[in-house]
Design brief:
Strand content: 5-15%
Radius of gyration: 24 Å
CATH class of the largest domain: Mainly Alpha
Helix content: 40-55%
CATH topology of the largest domain: Hypothetical protein af1432
Number of helices: 20
Shape: globular
CATH superfamily of the largest domain: Hypothetical protein af1432
Distance between the termini: 70 Å
Structural class: alpha+beta
Amino acid sequence: MKDKIFHDTVHGNIRISEDYCHKIIDTLLFQRLRRIEQSSVRSLYPCARHDRFIHSIGVYHIGSRIVDWLEQNTKEYPEVWGSIEASWVKVTKSYKLACLLHDVGHAPFSHTFEKYYDFEQGNLLDTKLNEAIDNAEFAQDLEISPDAKQHEKVSAYLLATHFKDAVVEIGGDVEYATRMIIGCSYNDDSTIEKQLANCFITVLHGEVDADRLDYAVRDQWAAGFSSGRIDIERLMRSMLIVRDSKIGNKLRICFTKGAINTIEGLSQIKDFQKKWVFRHQNVVYDQHILSMALERVADLYKAENTSYKDTLKYIFNVSIFTDINYKMSDGLCLYLLSDDTIIQMLRATLQNNPYAEEWLARQYQKKPLWKTPAEYEGLFSHNKGVITKEKIHALMKRNGYSLEDYCLKEVDYEPYTIPENQVWLWINDSTVDACNLIPRTTEKESTIFYLYLRGDKMGEKRKIIGAIQKIS
């Protein structure tokens, strides 16, 4: 089978088998990802215009390189390689398919609307996954596994249903690939094949995985922010599979000691994004206005005696991936819902949707009373421990402000550090937890509030700040 070449500005030429292209990439569901934004920070970085399509291609590329290096390096340990060789092709094909399809069910506009999947519907996506896999062991493991993100569950569901035949024809295992996307490890890993599958779960749904490596370098390239360079090739070259005596001689993926600096750099980029990008006052407000605009759309489209929430449940339903006749009440087709579908909704409701006009024009009606976490700390360092959302709302009400006059957003920050038992190094023929070697940040968890005030009331900024400083 011949390869097709995708020229990627980040990774160079990426070769993918025509088999993968024909059965997966050149399909309606996968091509939809060309119209799903990768990042939600274009209000801050206008050049950050890249999509989930090329990100998925990039994750496949990194995943394939990880497989190659793991095979080459692990073969230097014949006892280990001899035990996994028979399962290698099946598990690694499942992994590469999972890498390619890990975002196929992503909601429009990056993570902005992900919250509407499974909106107030309990664990509906878990139920659908269990129906698709139809395996008691999977159901038990899913119940105790860490919660996956909603788009991961939708992507896994589509792999296990829509792409099921393609996965099998290519030689992958549907359950393995599904587990890799949502991070659902085998609790009973008594067989070598399950141990190997668990290893590959960690390099698609772990702390140092193909997904994170691609978006770390891709977001940095597209946005243009500078927070250190990641040598992902060096990182991949350092990977191998070992038997770890600390866990009963079971299989574990490790990095050699030469990767320590790169792993530390990756954690620093993650922390930089959390600290300076995702909680930037422009990004926070822009995402708020976009969400409000869509909720206004839902309110305008709602049927009699229903809530806007019912409309959101209808819009963000797995039927958007399967039903070509799935439509809104005015006939707008929701099949293959993407960014441009949302834009069409905003345009269609402009006359009755001030949030849509504000977001589309980028003429923000409310301005922040302080612009950075540092400024917030400077203003309220003496009483920040007692400031709450409820107290600020009460203060604004006492001073005559309505909810239309202001917007209050709570933003949490938790410094990123390598967690325990997640990333392992292979040093002197023994495993070492990376969290013990990579310095922890001295930063502390913090919560700040952004208060945005209508432009015509900004003359009262000092009065409001002074009142908040007196909160006790």
